Amino acid sequence: MADQIEDFIKQHAFGAPEIKPDEKREFLGNFRERVALALTIAELNNSNSPAMVEKVVQEYPEYRMYLNGRMADSMIDQYMKIAIKNNYQFTVLVQNGVRVDQKVSMTNFGLVIASPNEKIKKRVLL
Q1: Which positions ≥6 away from 44 have C-beta within 8 Å?
Q2: 96: closest CA among 18, 7, 11, 13?
Q3: Contact residues for 78 (Cβ-Cβ < 8 A; gap 6+)
Q4: Contacts of 39 (CB under 8 A, 6+ apart)
Q5: What's the pTM?
Q6: pLDDT (tens place) for every residue of the chain, 126 residues total
Q7: DSSP-assigned letters across all residues of the chain
């Protein structure tokens, strides 16, 4: 009984335990096995990236685009427009536990395309 009470207190004090929280934080809320495409902010600055992302969006309409909300607004807008143009589901995320005004690194993922609820069968290879 004491163990049950302790578990109850821990769950309500710290929240429900998460599976692989670091992996989910890295891939903008997704598990690695669900990710079809993940591009860093540095890779998104490449002039070929928008065309490549649009091609992936068109080939995988059942997936969802996740954008890092801590990137520059102009970059978020650019990829949101691609999603809207293709009627593609997207989410802009500001990660929990991270201050919005904190600097984002060029090695952070800026865009992730992933299956929202199942392991993907084929990753997009670049």
Answers
A1: 71, 75, 79, 110, 111
A2: 18
A3: 50
A4: 49, 53, 109, 110, 111, 112
A5: 0.75
A6: 666 777 677 666 666 656 665 555 566 667 666 788 888 889 999 999 999 999 999 988 989 998 988 888 999 999 999 999 999 999 888 755 555 556 777 888 888 888 877 777 666 655
A7: -HHHHHHHHHHHHH-S--SSHHHHHHTTT--GGGEEEEEEHHHHTSTTHHHHHHHHHHH-TTSEEEEETTS-HHHHHHHHHHHHHTT--EEEE--TTS-TTSPPPTTSEEEEEE-SSS--SSPPP-
Calpha distance 26→21 (Å, rounded): 9
State residue 71's pLDDT score.
86
β-bridge mates for residue 67, sequence order: 92, 111
Contacts of residue 101, Cβ cutoff 8 Å, sequence gap at least 6? none
